[in-house]
Amino acid sequence: MKKLYIKTYGCQMNVYDSERMAEALGGQGYTQVTAPEDADMILLNTCHIREKAAEKVYSEIGRLKPLKSANPDLKIGVAGCVAQAEGEEIMARAPSVDLVVGPQSYHRLPAMEEAVQAGQKALDTDFPEEDKFEHLKSRPKAKRAPTAFLTVQEGCDKFCAFCVVPYTRGAEVSRPVAQILTEAQDLVERGVREITLLGQNVNAYHGAGEGGDWSLAQLIRRLARVDGLERIRFTTSHPNDMDDDLIAAHGDCDKLMPYLHLPVQAGSDKILKAMNRKHTADSYIRLIERIRAARPDLLLSGDFIVGFPGETDADFEDTMSLIREVNYGQAYSFKYSTRPGTPAAERDQVDEDVKSERLAKLQSLLKDQQIAAQDAMVGRDVTVLLEKPGRLEGQMVGKSEYLHAVHMPGEGAQVGDLVRARVVESAPNSLAAVPLHRL
Ligand code: SAH
Ligand code: SF4
Ligand code: F3S
After folding, report:
1. Is the CB of 152 under 6 A from ligand 3?
2. Chain-wide mean pLDDT for the chain?
3. More confident residue, 291 or 56
4. Edge-to-edge strand order for the sheet containing 99-101?
């Protein structure tokens, strides 16, 4: 058996893709290992979203290079969004790299692996015509973790002025309903009880199904009928693609969890326009009101960018006001990072120290909201899907319906069990609970 080590950066779609690549190379006789020193093939599945993310790849390649002197048969490959954006440059800059493969070409990995074994270099950053998912279809039967990702949509047509995704992942494509149902069924047979549907723009999903194209809400309602599948989540959404049925599903589809990641990026209409977001602060706030009317206990999460070109103190204050008005249970926030080839990279930039100052203020407000939301859970009952044993003897950890990390005494419960539990304590990043009964 040859040994494969994959290191995954970036978003959940990369996590999903790494699993598919491991399966594809499994067909070439590879098993996965957890240390790069043991590997015959190392794949870095990379992210290009911010400058720091992309730089990590080159330093990692530098760190791995000595392993090639220890094992002359070792092959190093770069996959993911940096591979797509800078494939040729990687090959030129890093001679230790044997293989570069973009996200739309993973089904071609087995052939590329054979080429590198024959001593060639392999580079594929095409956007092929053929259906990648159809070719990647393998049906492993081994038992697996109770939660899984399932990519249903890929790429993006929105072209936010800061973002590389439309370039690295290509145009928006939805997988057909039948293909998704088969994959979901397989996952459930392998012990999966919670599926997170993935897409860069997942709520723009419009896959071919019976009677025409299905919306994400239709897909979720169909998946909710799969026996043994207990929980459904989806990420990441764009505010403009939250249709009425998807909002309603948050209220009437029991298996759809009360957690929504709905990035707004900024609270100033001037900046939102410059970002090409095509929504206003007010339209976003009204949308949140409608979703909360359907599901009052929804935990809302978001993404924010500070220091986008042209952002003044007043614009930044608009973002702070929006955060105060919406009140987030959880959020991600970033300093704007110039990305080559995107429209905003050409504009006048905000000073780095201004960005840092704004980010600190914004993160402090978001942190306060997150802690308040967590503290408000104490005394409430939640349902926890157990994912693994905890750090302490007999302890189990899992996720609440709101995606809080929860730990509790196991009392004989197993990984994959759903346990009703009472929250007794709130720590900054987790909740402690006592089990009430198993469901
Ligand atoms: N498809 C998703 C997420 C895309 S990337 C969406 O549309 O929301 C995840 C997050 O990274 C974005 O929501 C944004 O907040 C952030 N991001 C993207 N490009 C960035 C850049 N150039 N600089 C800083 N943050 C960025
Ligand atoms: Fe990027 Fe999301 Fe905007 Fe698409 S919608 S361009 S993925 S931030
Ligand atoms: Fe990064 Fe590509 Fe995901 S740029 S965030 S890995 S889509």
Report:
1. no
2. 96
3. 291
4. 30-32, 2-8, 41-46, 75-79, 99-101, 122-124
What does the block give as tokens for 131? 């259906």
3-state SS assignment for residue 39:
coil
| pLDDT classification of 131: cutoffs 50, 70, 90 | confident
Give me the helix-helix angle, 352-375 and 313-326, nearest 10°: 10
Using the atom order of ligand 3, give the atom closest to the CA of residue 48.
4
User: What is d(CA 195, CA 232) in angstroms, rounded to the nearest whole number?
Assistant: 5
Question: Which ligand is the nearest neighbour of the Cα of 10?
Answer: 3
**CA pair distance 240, 203, nearest whole angstrom:** 9
pLDDT above 90: residue 253: yes
d(CA 148, CA 2): 26
418: left (phi over 0), alpha (psi -120 to 50) or beta: beta
With a cut of 90, say whether residue 121 has pLDDT above it: yes
| 358 within ligand 1 shell (Cβ under 6 A) | no
Q: Which CATH architecture has domain 264-376?
A: 2-Layer Sandwich (3.30)
Amino acid at 374: Q
Residue 66 has what DSSP assignment? H
Model confidence at 148, pLDDT cuts 50, 70, 90, reads very high
Angle at which helices 12-26 and 109-117 pack, to 10 degrees? 60
Question: Residue 17 C-alpha to ligand 3 middle, in angstroms?
Answer: 11
Tell whether ligand 3 has an atom less than 6 A from the beta carbon of residue 169.
yes
Q: Which bound ligand lies closest to the C-alpha atom of 339? A: 1
Q: Which two tokens stand for residue 45?
A: 């599945």
CATH numeric code, 381-438: 2.40.50.140
Name the residue of 7, 15, 21, 48 to mutate for ligand 3: max ligand atoms within 8 A of Cβ. Answer: 48
Pick the CATH number of 141-257 from 3.30.750.210, 3.40.50.2300, 3.10.20.310, 3.10.620.30: 3.30.750.210
